[in-house]
Amino acid sequence: MAFSRVSIILLHCIITLTSQKSLGASVHDSLQKKDFKYLFTMISSSKDKPAEQKIYLQAFLANAKAAKDWELIVNGYKNYADYADEDVAITYTDSMVYAAKQSRDDKLIGSAYLSKGIAYYVFKRHELALENYLTAKPYIERSADEYLKYKLIYNIAHEKYYLGKNAEAIRLFNACLHYFKDTNPRAYLNTLHSLGLVYNKAGDYGKSLDMVRQGNAAAKTLNNHSMDAYFLHLEGINEYFRENYASAIEHLKESIPEIKDNKDHGNVAVANFYIGKSLWDLKKYREGVPYLKQVDQALIDNDYIRPDLRESFELLIDFYKDKGELKKVLYYVDRLLVADSILTTTHDKLYDNIHVNYDTVELRQEKKNIEAQLSQEMTYRKLLIFGSVCLAIIIIVLTIALYRHRRRNRIFRELMENKKPTGKPVSDAPKELLIPQEKADKILSRLEKWRQSMRYLDPNITRASMAVYLETNVHYVSDVILHYYGKSFTEYINDLKIDYIIDQLKTDKHKRMFTHEALAKEAGFGTTQSFVIAFKARTGISPNFFSAKIRKEMNEKEIQ
Length: 560
Prior knowledge:
Layout: H1 5-19, H2 25-32, H3 36-45, H4 50-67, H5 70-82, H6 86-103, H7 106-122, H8 126-143, H9 146-162, H10 166-180, H11 185-201, H12 205-222, H13 228-241, H14 245-261, H15 265-281, H16 285-302, H17 311-322, H18 326-346, H19 348-351, H20 360-375, H21 382-417, H22 437-452, H23 463-470, H24 474-485, H25 489-507, H26 516-523, H27 528-539, H28 543-559
């Protein structure tokens, strides 16, 4: 039988205390006399020496427990969490929260939950990060600690940014900006930079550059230049999207040394990617290749990848395919599969439906074809191999093109002839729903009314708002939808919106002339990108193809 969570935390505390006995008596006695500031400094400075750091971590926590100071005990566990691997770090944050609760101090409890949320954020476990932020909120509000309040808002804003809720992120970051301006120079500069990132993601490069200018001016006024390289980095990315490629390359190259000194491997990879992309758009492919390869190196050395950096592998595959260097093509196909595997795990909600040039199934097929061609290299002359490779590539390209053409037409025909289900419960639902059937039936009944009234077109739908309408809680909303429809909450809402748009395009000729942006607003999507992604996830084809195809068919019918 598994231990309860509290039992595990208590056991962890006992093990930590017991481990103090393993220290040599002289070392233990010596560190008992050191103040906590000294021990904290030594923990930080010995991060590259794990065995030595462990001694200071143990001493800090042991001294805190000896002093019976809950705040210091919480910080002792936080020290452990800051330098541990993911699973161990999360265990230490559990101990941190447990210790904070013993203090009955709202500020300490709120701070502990906030730190736990930040730990989850670092490990890209965003739902759990947000859950802990929201748990921290009432404690921090009761504590009336303004700094903690805005630190919490700042971290929630980053979750909004991650989830693509740009408007909400901007509002929260602006609230932090006003507070930090007079209280915390580094936090103020960080917030300006974060706002710049959100504006960049939203496509407002002018406002993003304005944040860069404000950040540079503030750095001079405050005589704090810790963020200079990051503002330079952001300016370079904005210049890339503004198609000022030479300026982008200059700024990004200048930002790399300091960012590299900070051991910020992720932003170094991002800088190399956009330098490579800038050179690519300038048709300087050979010069761009080494920078794109640095993205792969970051993946090899630090397991770092994010969705936009994935394109590096696609460009390298195409580059070496054009040069006929199939071994390198095969290598980067393998690397792309590795990148996809990591992205699927760490960016699941953003990545599952992302549009990419190389579908995983097609990529594996292409890999097999290339491997087959390479296996013949030992038995055929170079001229014959060259011809075979060229033919194989042509066949692959034509096969993929034909497959995609037939697949898209088949899907289109199915959509025109058989409208997909939009909310009728399935009869063979699983039996393990842990909700009373009477309650589930009531939720389903109100859910059907909600669907028939087309409330899913509301752009501000949340689980909480739906729960209010259904007269239940957010957990029951998700559980019922998953149980009866086999979908997550977001997928269920998006499918209803897309089915509505498909029906409109089939019946309203005026809607067929709408832009993607107009269709997205019609269906209640926050952004055009989210609409396009949801449409392809629901149908397997793009809205552009569907709209063009249906316009063509309807025009032909009118002519006849």
